[in-house]
Design a protein that fits this description.
Rossmann fold, alpha/beta, Dehydroquinate synthase-like, alpha domain, 2 domains
């Protein structure tokens, strides 16, 4: 088991990583003295697979537990769903000291964190991510949000969890598509910050796809460590440091939206967004063909898409204007100078963006 510390002064918290450690959650929450009435937000599939383990571990530590199930879809990340959950939570909250446990992937983590940030002007919550994507990325850093019809993550807040517990043993029940989706974010970390880690992924991607525990534990630990260091330096993305975590996300989010969140899942869309960002980097003379080919080859080897199907270029362009990273009429892209070297560039010419998207359209 590994314990990383994300240092944010009074908002600091631990990230606990290990295999088959979910039964320890109650003990760690008790140490925080944030209450014994757990309101667990999850979905039916996760509860069926892992709910008993979570419930037993919490109750053995003296917790009261209530599960709130939501549909397993991106559409659950809505203000309507948040309102519905809050109404239910007020019934459970009578005479109690409630804390929220986000028990699921990115959708559940974002939604639960958002609710925690606004309910009674903020109550404690913990992240227990159950997907690779959430363990390496979305479960850490305190970004919470819900989607609006106009775009993804437009309503949200920075609100840090009190604890993150990543049990890599939970990943054994994921299907290959979910593992591949998480690997998009894993690859992102190598590209933006750690060339040595990227090389490790090139050599060991098959062990990850085969769900070998040492490999899974290593990548979750490495990515968590990279993200923790970045968030410590720029918690609210005000200094431009944390912005590099958005590599591939500007066009990736646009692809998700243009496909109505059905054509591609988050990781698949981010993989495509990274390829387009790489091509833009090449067109601007920031990087070379060899670097772009290495990234594209790794994305292809892990089974992520390298072409955009059944979505039009104009629809992607239209969606990308809704990206939160626009400053007025100026866009902002995370680009690369090489493996492990990310840079931020503003006001990329629309012609170049369109040309780079077109290359990957079928």
């Amino acid at each position: 088991m590994h314990i990383l510390k994300l240092n944010l002064k009074k908002h600091s918290y631990s990230i606990i990583i290990g295999n088959n450690i979910i039964n320890l959650l109650g003990r760690y929450i008790l140490k925080l003295n944030i209450g014994r009435d757990a309101y667990v937000i999850t979905n039916a599939s996760i509860k069926k697979k892992h709910g008993r383990l979570l419930n037993n571990g919490l109750k053995q530590s003296g917790f009261n537990v209530r599960f709130k199930l939501i549909p397993d879809t991106e559409k659950s990340k809505s203000i309507e769903m948040a309102s519905s959950i809050i109404k239910d939570m007020t019934l459970y909250d009578r005479g109690r000291r409630v804390l929220i446990i986000a028990f699921g992937g990115g959708v559940i983590g974002d939604l639960a964190g958002f609710i925690a940030s606004i309910y009674k002007r903020g109550i404690p919550y913990t992240q227990v991510p159950t997907t690779l994507l959430a363990q390496v990325d979305s479960g850490i850093g305190g970004k919470t949000a819900v989607d609006l019809t106009q775009g993804k993550n437009l309503l949200g807040a920075f609100y840090q969890p009190r604890l993150v517990l990543s049990d890599v043993g939970l990943l054994k029940t994921l299907n290959i598509r979910q593992i591949q989706s998480g690997l998009a974010e894993v690859i992102k970390y190598g590209v933006i910050k750690d060339a040595e880690f990227f090389t490790y992924l090139e050599k060991n991607y098959q062990d990850i796809l085969d769900l070998k525990m040492p490999a899974l534990e290593f990548i979750v630990m490495r990515c968590s460590g990279i993200k923790a260091k970045i968030v410590q330096q720029d918690e609210r993305e005000e200094k431009g440091i944390r912005t590099i975590l958005n590599f591939g996300h500007t066009i990736g989010h646009a692809i998700e939206a243009a496909g109505r969140y059905k054509r591609y899942n988050h990781g698949q869309a981010i993989a495509l967004g990274m390829l387009i960002a790489c091509d833009i980097s090449k067109k601007l003379g920031l990087t070379n063909n060899t670097t772009v080919e290495r990234i594209e080859n790794l994305i292809k080897k892990v089974g992520l898409p390298t072409k955009i199907e059944k979505i039009s270029g104009p629809d992607i362009i239209k969606a990308h204007y809704r990206d939160k990273k626009f400053m007025g009429l100026k866009n902002k892209f995370v680009l690369i100078k090489g493996i492990g070297k990310a840079v931020i560039r503003k006001n990329i010419p629309l012609k170049i963006i369109k040309e780079s998207i077109k290359i990957y359209l079928i």
